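hey so u asked for the seq, here:
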Amino acid sequence: MSASVLVGTQWGDEGKGKVTDLISGDFDVVCRYAGGANAGHTVIANGKKLALHQVPSGVMYEGTYPVIGNGCIVDPEVLLSEIDMLAEQGISAENLKISGNAHIVMPYHKDLDGAHEKKLGKNLIGTTKRGVGPCYMDKMNRTGLRIQDMLDEKIFRQKLESALAYTNPILEKVYELPTYTVEQICETYLPYAERIRPYIVESSLFLNEQLESGKNILFEGAQATMLDIDHGTYPFVTSSNCTAGGAVTGSGVGPTNIDRVLGVAKAYLTRVGSGPFPTELFDEIGDKLGEVGHEYGVTTGRKRRCGWYDAVVVNYAARVNGLTDLAITKLDVLGCLDEIKVCVAYECDGVEYHTVPEHQSVFYHAKPVYETLPGWKCDISGVRNFYQLPREAKDYIDFLEQLAGVRVSIITVGPDREQTIDRYWH
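ran it, structure tokens below
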């Protein structure tokens, strides 16, 4: 038996979906442990790209159990639409397991999310407006509803009545939005409950039983280290713990069961939404990276901000997550550049920082300290062996490995599954 965690090391969109797809065949269970429908990941089915937000990537493998852990939140409408979409592609979700302790995204959560973002004006967070923040807020406030509550109509109605007594005045008085009734929500959500019922399990028990029977589990992270509620660039973060530690609390599997932590980093850097980004490029190079790398968000469709690889951020992620391995994605995109810069430190007020500063205000004033490396100016999308890469590309990977203090086990050189170099993972 073994358990591994896969996490993003930057601000998301590192290519975790592709890496999960690459290694999922090694695992009997793929469990998402945090986040909701705000995190999109792309999978390939019958030669077609499918964007999933709620269903774990493990659904693509026959015989694998995809699990939505207790640390996740579930939008029943999105979940069921994805199950139906997969069925249309001939992919069954019958092995899907959903924790009864996962919280439910309600319609008023989405209303509150959008209204609050609008109220922030130019200081907006950049939320996907999927109701994620308000749902997690209700969870911490102990006024949220969980998946298991949907299974008992009486309990669901009672808890919903209490939740609306708290939420409706905020909708009406603070945001001047329409309110909800118990009947209005039950009319939609109780039919969802009947469709979801067969998938609901005590997920911690299920996962631990799988380990005890010798099965392998992959914990699939959503978002990324720099979007973690505790370790990210607060307040421009998500509302859950998406670092490796979240795999423990978000699944009910103890930390001693985890033996590998694979961090995923893009060979350059992108960010969607607001927040600090020290290596952001505002010139033609940034535009070129966005164009060649097709940098648009899976969930929002928004154009991603592009910049140079930030080794300070990845080194920080290696420490916070306890990385054992690193996957570098989209190395092929850098083939369009004559030279490549890597941020090795920040400089602010005469002080040089080699790790993410505790006082995040430094992020807003930090100037990146760069090392410049030569580009390779050729197409590497057909390379499948590390030693076949151009010398400059090998030197670039070796440099990133040295800066992170973690071995680079996987390199991707294109969007397709086979466009991958497996150095040390297997």
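The chain has three domains: 2-99+200-261, 103-196, 264-422. The chain has twelve helices and 20 strands.
lmk if thats what u needed
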